[in-house]
Amino acid sequence: MGGVARRDVVRAAVLGAGSAALAACGSPLDPRGAGADGEVALTVATNAVSGGKNADEADWITRWVVPRFERRKRAEGTPVRVRFAPSGVDDEQYKTKLALDLKAHAGPDVMALDGIWVGEFAQARYIRPLREVAGERAVDWAGWAQIDPKVRSLARFEGKLYGIPAGTDARLLFFHRPLFRRAGLPADWQPRSWAEVLAAARRLKRLDGVTPLQINAGTAMGEATTMQGVLPLLTGAGGRISDGERWYGDTRELRAVLGFYRDVYGAGLGDPRLQQEAKGRDKSFERFATGRLGILAEGDYFWRDVIAPKTGTAPMKGRDDEVGYALFPARAPGAGLGGRDHVSLSGGAVHVLNPHTRHPREAFALLAALHSAAALRARLGDSAMITERDDVNDAVLGRDPMLRFAADKALPVTTFRPGLAAYPAVSLALQEATAAVVAGRSPAAAAAAYRSALKEVLGGDDRIIG
User: Fold this and answer.
1) Would you place residue 10 in the very low, low, confident or very high pLDDT band (cuts 50, 70, 90)?
2) Cβ count within 10 A of residue 36
């Protein structure tokens, strides 16, 4: 892929395929209209639709958040009418639609962004810091006391908050306990190094019909390769992907990461075919659920949504007894970033305000309502997930020991992806580096090729370290 093409990956995330996105999502929304009888008219948008993608989120907003917010504002003497703008499209289509609306000074008053889009939208001046839009009320919001500073970083760019984080997650190693028993491995397995992970995988390889280890690789896995594989490993080797606006290139830490991929796929501890298939990740889930995959590096949603006994896409009736979970170890004890023994990686969405809203006070009130403890607990019902609020987590995570483990053990050692415009293209280059190693290229050659790709992405060497 040439330099111009690689740089276009960055621009295409916001501006490419604009007409297709408009066709898929509808025409621009104008946040400046007024409701009937003097009502303030607001619009909130997320990539969710009842009966389709993220249906629970759409139903929660329309059936719980909006009616209660409207009743409260009417009781306060400020009638507000809120419209939910649903989408059920590919994330890139949704992203492009928002960007085009914001560029036209239109769009919803409150909208959901993936955390890694914040810097990109901020650099394009499509969004502004929350304080600039909503004033001091955004600073004084009581809910900030319940959101850990590390979680707030999802919504932060260049030291300024652009919105409120909408939940977070953690990356872990999941392992299949019945397979571990057959291989003579402990049920309470917690590896302390990459070497111990590989040693367990070699024991699992002795079992017929079992893939020992799935660590996502290649471009077919997309961002899952970077999130579930490269970045946790890079942090565990003591490395970073970026430092401010500068990006790390061919470093010894990256070579160590690619060396781990070689050790996995070069020794037959992982299935290289899965990394080349469009549905390879889903197949890895199915293999784990049916006892044909021993160790899987994934986010906590794998536990919540994929192998959930009653509602999962690959349900495991005996999940709570059969599935173990462990922290990602550093390359060796103390070798992780900041001297850590274990690491994780987290992501999440962010709710932001349209800088062109005519009703910043009411728009911020709606934003705050989406992140109230009562609203989050209503969304969860009897289920559990890691939310952005500590008070809600304290109340609901006790229902699920795995999620309590993720919140208590993984989040304190987690890191987040950089919210910079170049990140999508950089991530693609990392995926290509892992694909090269899986295909048999040396880690050194793949790291050198990554640096060359990085130079093309950034348009030169000035912002490359190493």
Assistant:
1) very low
2) 8
